[in-house]
Amino acid sequence: MSHPGPEEMSVFPRVSLRPEVYEHLRHVFLNQELLAAVGRAEAERRFQGLLLVLSHPPGFTCVRASTHLAPLEEVRRRLAQELQQRQQTTVAVEILLHPRVPDVLLLPVIGPRSLVPLRSEVVVGAQCGSAVLRGANVFAPGIVATPKFMKPGDAVSVFSDVDGRCTRGCTKPFQGNKVFVGNGVSEMHRATIFAQEPAKGLGVRMTEPLYQSPSFDGVLPDLVFLQNLPSVVVGHVLGPRPGERVLDMCAAPGGKTCHLAGLMKNQGEVLALDRIRNKVELIRQNAAALKLTCVRAFCFNSTQAVTSDPALLATDGPPFPPSSFDRVLLDAPCSGLGQRPSMTVGWTLKEITSYSPLQRKLLHAAVQLLRPGGVLVYSTCTVTLAENEEQVAWALQTYPCLSLVPQEPHVGGPGLPGAGLTPDQLKLLQRFSPELSHVAPPLSTEAPPPLSNEAPPLSTEAPPPLSNEAPPLSTEAPPLSHQADRDTIGFFIAKFLKN
C-alpha cells in the first residue's frame, strides 16, 4: 500500500510568510551545496514540503516520563488509566514506547478527521488554535469572538484566526482568514469571557477536534511532561551523570532543566539561568513539583555569566569563573521556524536574522564556562542555516578547542549542506526535518526497530552513516518508529567536546 505525501495529508495551506522571508528560506533550502547533493527538483520539493508540514501538527504526541520517580511501565499504565477515565471510554488508549529514547511515551495523533462545522462559531487566536490542534481544550484567554448569546452547553465550532485580524468581542461571523480546528461545547457565558476582569478557565471543551489527541491539562503532573521528541533527545545527547555540575543557559520554562536533573538521579547540581524573572519562578515550580532538589534557578543574562574578576564573582550563583561546569546546554533563543503547527509567520526578515549575533555571544560564554574535557550541546527549534550549521562552522573555526562528537541517540537526520561543513561533520549533527516525514527511509539490510510494548535499553553503538541523497520512494508506509522520529517539529542539535 502506498503512503501519502504531504500534499495528500494537508488540510491547511502552506505556512504564510512575508515575501522577503519566503525568498530567504528558499535560498537556504536551494543553496549550491544542497543542489549538488540532491538536485534542484528534490531540493524544491523538500522546501515546498516544509512549508506545508509546518502548518500541520506532528503525527505523534510525545510525553516524557519522570523515570526518576517511577518506572516507565508504571507511568505508561497510570497514564493509560487516567486518559481512559477522562475520556469516559472502555477503549484502551494507544501509548507506544520509543525504541531508542528510554523515557518517552508516544501517542499517535488521529487526523485530519472528517468533521462538519456547526453554524455557531467561536474564533480563537492563532496560538490557541495551534494548541487545539495538538490536543488542548480552549481556555477563555484565547477566545477572540463568540456568538452573541453563547451560554454553557452550546455546541460550537472553533476557528483559528490565522492573521490576528478578528476584533475581540465581535459578534458577527468573522470573514477573515480562518481555519476550522474542530467542534466543542461552550463552558462559559459570552458575558463572562468578555467581562472587564479577564476570564480564566475552560472556555470550550473540544468534543470533536480535527486532530484527535488527548488533553493533558492536569494529567499526572508529577509523572508526565508534554515535550517534543527532539527536546527530549537533547537531554540524552548532553548525557549528564550523577554528581556532575551542569549549566542550562536559557532554561525557561524548565522542561529540559528538569530532564537533566532527572537523568542525574537528582545527584549533583543543575544551574538554570533565564533573563525573565517570572519564567525563572516557573522553573523553580516545575523542579519542586518533580521533587528535583538539585536544580537552582537564577534570573540572569547568560551572555554575562562568566567572569575572571574575583570582585564580581557571586558566592552562590552567576556570574561564574571559567571552567565551572562539566556540561553546558545552550538551547538558544532562535527564530522558532521549526515550530508546528504554525500557519502564519508575521516576522520580518530583519527579525528572523537578528538571532545569530546573540547566539554567538551565548556560545562564547558557554565555551568559557565549560571545563576542559566537558561537553557542550547547542540546539535550536528553527530550520535556518544561519542559526544552525553556520553557527557550528563558526564555533569550530573560532574555538580550536572544540570538536564535534557523535550523538546518542541519533534519531534525526544529518545536518543540512550549505555552511561549508564536511560530509563527516554533517553526519555528527542532528537535524529533525519534518519535510521528510512522509518520505520512505533509505533501503537498509536491517529493519529499523519498531515501536513496541517493551522498553529496550539505550544503544551504545554509533548511529549508522547518514546521507543527504534523496531517499528512494517505496510502495510501503515507513514503520511507526521512523514516522515518529521524522514527523516532529523542526529542530537542530550539535554536540561539542572541549579538548
TrEMBL record:
One of its GO terms (molecular function) is RNA methyltransferase activity. The active site is at C381. Residues 150-499 form the SAM-dependent MTase RsmB/NOP-type domain. The keyword rRNA-binding does not apply. CDD domains: AdoMet_MTases, PUA_NSun6-like. Residues 439-484 are annotated as: Disordered. Pfam families: Methyltr_RsmB-F. One of its GO terms (biological process) is RNA methylation. S-adenosyl-L-methionine binds at C250, A251, A252, P253, G254, G255, K256, D274, D309, D331. Belongs to the class I-like SAM-binding methyltransferase superfamily. RsmB/NOP family. This is SAM-dependent MTase RsmB/NOP-type domain-containing protein. It comes from Gadus morhua.
